[in-house]
Amino acid sequence: MTAPALETRGLTLRYGGVTALESVDLVVRPHTIHALIGPNGAGKTSFINVCSGSASATAGTVSVGGRTRRARRPSDVARCGLARTFQNLQLFAEATVLENVLIGAEAQNGVGPLASLLGTPRARRSGRAAREAALAAIEFVGLAAERDHVAGALPYGKQRLLEIARALATDPAVVLLDEPGAGFNPQEKQELADLVRAIRDRGAAVLLVEHDMPLVMGVADRISVLNFGTLIAEGTPTEVANDPAVVDAYLGTDATEGLAS
Ligand SMILES: Nc1ncnc2c1ncn2[C@@H]1O[C@H](COP(=O)(O)OP(=O)(O)OP(=O)(O)O)[C@@H](O)[C@H]1O
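^ Those are the sequences you sent over. The predicted structure of the assembly is below.
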């Protein structure tokens, strides 16, 4: 059996007296869209933060492609094959679309700042590869026409797509998407669902944190449910939508009607 794309064991994160994650064991299989859902404050962003190196676990391990991730800096994490987007967009507003994505693509090229500055042959080769990867990612999310536009001037929905392009430019095996549909209208959510499927279909695993239940139920292959930092359920969309503990903690009976049966 192939190694999980992402696996956590006993992942625990405490902020002083607040337990954001309590011994979370979660496996994301390759080529799957795995949604992580739960009420506000359940620990979903904390999970992404720990997996991506933005926060340090109090206990437990994170493995990417079967290798325990010890990297801490975001550039090291990118080289592990993991990339993320942020709930609150983290774009350089004054930079162009291409420049924003290049920052992502260059994050994993392993060329030090001195080599880049000196323009060594390796740095030049790697710079060309990063540009190609950036252009491909921009095209993949449908922003080719806006390549040279300043990020801060893009409509909000396109800024969200740009954030996804930046994550994809590192050619990750696992992409963590933190509420990518926030602020989207129904048409944009439909397009987002197609994009998430396309990311999976080109070979990556996706961990999707999202509150929009029709979107989640329509796109996810598997769903894990967090409540107060603890996993309370895992299964297919149908299994999760019919799990009494999930309905009670998060979905409510109204929310599940017509979602999955
Ligand atoms: N930097 C921090 N310092 C202290 N407590 C924090 C910090 N970040 C998160 N928390 C707490 O950890 C818990 C989990 O928060 P987290 O943001 O991971 O939840 P979430 O499921 O992503 O919520 P939402 O759906 O609202 O984004 C909450 O109780 C939150 O208040």
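The chain has a mean pLDDT of 88. The CA atoms of residues 124 and 162 lie 25 Å apart.

Shout if you want it in another format.
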